[in-house]
Amino acid sequence: MKRHLIFVILFLSSFASYSEESKVICSPYKPDCINCPEFTTLFPLEEFGDGLESLDIEADNSEMSESNSYYFSGNVKLRAPAHFLSADEVHYNQESELTSATGNVKFQDDTFVMSSDKLTSQMIDNELIAKTTNANYQDIASGILSPNGFAEEIIKDGSNINLINTTYTLCPLGKQDWMVEAKKIELNQITNRGVADSATLFFYGMPIFYMPKYGWVLQGRGSGFLAPNYNAYSEDDTTDVNGNVTKYERQNRFRVPYYFNIAPDRDLILALTYMSSRGFIYEGKYRQLVKPKILNGREDSILSIESKYLAEDKITGLPRWLLYSSLEQDLTEKLKLSVTYNRISDRNYYKDIDRTSPLDLTLKSNLILNYINPEKNFSASILTEHEQTVSAVPEYQRALDTGISKTFRAEAKTPISLALNATKFSHETEGKSSGVRSSGRVSITRTLASNFPVITTKASYEASYYQLKNANNINRKAAGAGISFSFPFSFSNDLEGSKLNHLVTPSISYNYKQKVVQGNIPLFDTTDKYDDIITFADLTSGERYTGRDRVTNANDITLAISTNSSIVDKVSLTSGAAQTFYADDQVVSNTGSTNYETRKSYSDIATTIRLNIGDKITFANDIQFNPDKNKIVKKENSLSLKLTPKKFITIALSDEGEKETAKIYGSYPITKSFHFFGGIDRITSQRITKQETTGIAYETCCWAARIAHFKEGGGSTDYSYSTGFELVFTGLGSTATPLKGRIEGNIPYYNSELR
Questions:
Q1: 684 in a structural domain
Q2: Beta bridge partners of 474
Q3: What are φ and ψ of residue 528, in 5° steps?
């Protein structure tokens, strides 16, 4: 069965088409074209003639007859305004504009070159018609991915080219790993279409399949089959109501997509997927570019609708489906609309059908309308959302959220900011508190006119009202103020001929916020930033909680120092250390029905280091140090070495005390074309692998083969396994295959374009 499926993959791959998702980037102008040889042509290209109508002719010998016929021999070079011809001998009739060339013939125009031993050409109605036999040809307009081959006869009628008994490939010259042999191929450079009669695809000299008629797009997008995809996967044994156990051997998944190039701004992909254990899945994905009135940094907005439907699952007997849709659009210069709707038929859809088992997954749908007026320093928004929990714990949803913000005296030394917000919260779990939270906040800041020290003062007042269902309404008011002093000083020195700049900034700040009882307020959208690790940014921000359901009391002094050393565009090293001292030994708690928690009179010490060496090496380190225990209690480390999209490694290790995680991603080339890749996201303290990807790939300029193994899940016995394989011929199918997309999604920075 597997041999038959692989044969079908090869079969369908060969009559595929380019699509917008096909991003085969491999030209002589791209410096990272590591898999491609240097761009070459059949012969060195020549310049055309300078005159608008005249011919420039060079030859060792020339003769002229009375009938305005010319004969040239010996290194003949004929230069016309739009083409070039060279040969050993050339006969030219000025009246009929007929040219006959023999011996080492080389023909060149703007897009096409040919070499043979014999060629005739003639100007008819201002259009050059050239004919040659037993010729090599190349379409030079496409750069290194230029179609080339050999034909027993070539007829070039302007932009229409007919190749008789010919070969055709998009591999570079002299590297014909694959080729198409056909009785006839017609290339129309105006319609951008190629059509072959009686075509056979050869891969390393072996015939793969035969097609009586085959059409494709010469460059860019066009309707047609995309590269198919094959996966092998395993199913869990099932038990029916009678206790009978069904055991599943290794299963197969095969997907065949077809691309519709509807218009320059829209397309459609339809796909048929067969899962041997589940049945047929019908897929569709529609995309349309929506031009915004004001770009706001975006070239285009995209409307996208994707759906998958399995009419009847062989195992469950139920219909299974998926629906994704999204739209980002600027309605006016200041008004932006964002719509997302994501939903699946049941929580096991990804595990059973997509063969993934993501942890902590929630599908979010929302509608957001934003109004932003920078000139008036005013913004407003309205939002509604819905979440479908898949493998995560259900959370509160914002059934409706509205907000406005306005800054008065924005250009003055003392700006005043006002923000109003109202949110209706709901929860899919019965018994959970719900209701409407309305809040208003006014804040004022002022930076005193001093360069050293820099003195900043701030004050704020916040009022919130909770209208709760099945509970008493709650009012909360909190005021706060603060002042900070920073003492920046800079210096520089030379380091091996480069100027190394340093900035050191010690600072001290005092924050006050009144202590308010809040234990009876539900936790709708609030989290504690100190739960995982206390970072330098957390301590210097002055606010412990995210969201509005808790306001941290404060009577604190924070000491901090930060440094920045840099060589422009080469090296940047930043570091910082901070500690906060508390005058109050109690802090507002985010534990349900609890008002306060006790704490030490000082926080742990938080340090941070960031090192960037160009865009190749990045190192980050965050440490939470407990001075009482004289030990590091939590830490986060990450290191990235990114040399090329096929040669990199990224390591991220986190120790949160009770939870340790590790993320490692990388790719390493064995040769220029062959490389292996892998990635793992694992909760090491619980021995749970969230995601694991391993694979190998062989990629050249004109074809690629990839095989990847995936492991995803939520526990030691509940993993989902699958293995994917694909073979892609450049120019005969899209490189944006499902397997490629899944590899790139699981391994950040990895890029599997054929380059």
A1: no
A2: 466
A3: -95, 120
| 9 in a structural domain | no
Which of 252, 196, 244 has its CA nearest to residue 224? 196
How far apart CA 396 and CA 521 sit, in angstroms, is: 14
Query: Each residue of 129-158: pLDDT tens digit?
Result: 999 999 999 988 776 678 899 999 999 988
Domain co-membership, 392 together with 456: no
Q: How far is CA 316 from CA 232, 240, 311, 321, 349, in A?
A: 20, 10, 11, 13, 11
- DSSP letters, 410-423, are TTSSS-EEEEEEEE
pLDDT at 32: 40
Which one, of 16, 632, 604, lies nearest residue 271 by Cα? 16
- Tell me which long-range contacts 20-23 makes (C-beta under 8 A, separation of at least 24): 20/221, 20/261, 20/267, 20/287, 21/226, 21/734, 21/736, 22/221, 22/733, 22/734, 22/735, 22/736, 23/735, 23/736, 23/753
Token pair of 483 as six digits: 């002042």
**In contact, 70 and 98? CB cutoff 8 Å:** no
Which residue, of 166, 196, 218, is where some domain finishes?
Answer: 218
Q: Hey, what amino acid is at 739?
A: L
Tokens of 159: 């932009």
Q: Is the peptide bond before 453 cis (omega within 30 degrees of 0)?
A: yes
> For residue 570, is pLDDT > 60?
yes
Q: What is the pTM of this model?
A: 0.77
User: What distance in Å separates the CA atoms of residue 753 and residue 14, rounded to the nearest whole number?
Assistant: 18
Q: How high is the pLDDT of residue 118?
A: 94
Q: In sequence order, which residues have a C-beta less than 8 Å from that of residue 311 and are 6 or more positions away?
A: 279, 280, 282, 319
Q: Which of 42, 41, 174 is nearest to 115 (CA)?
A: 42
Per the CB < 8 A criterion, the answer to whether 136 and 150 are in contact is yes
Q: 488 and 612 share a domain?
A: yes
For all residues of the chain together, what is the average pLDDT?
86
> Rounded CA gap, 406 and 150, in Å?
70
Q: From CA 652, how far away is CA 662, in angstroms rounded?
A: 6
Q: Under DSSP, is residue 753 helix (H, G, I), strand (E, B) or coil?
A: coil
- For residue 214, give the 3-state DSSP assignment: strand
Report pLDDT for 17.
41
The H or E element containing residue 7 is helix 2-13
Task: Say yes or no: 338 and 437 in one domain.
Answer: no
Position 325, amino acid: S
| Whether 423 and 442 share a structural domain | no
CA–CA distance, 462 with 443 (Å, rounded to integer): 9
- Contact status, residue 81 vs residue 53, Cβ threshold 8 Å: yes
What is the pLDDT confidence band of residue 360, given thresholds at 50, 70 and 90? confident
Which residue shows structure tokens 């320093």?
A: 377
- State the DSSP string of 587-634: EE--STT--EEE--SBPPEEEEEEEEETTTEEEEEEEEEETTTTEEEE
User: Is 660 in contact with 652 (CB distance < 8 Å)?
Assistant: no
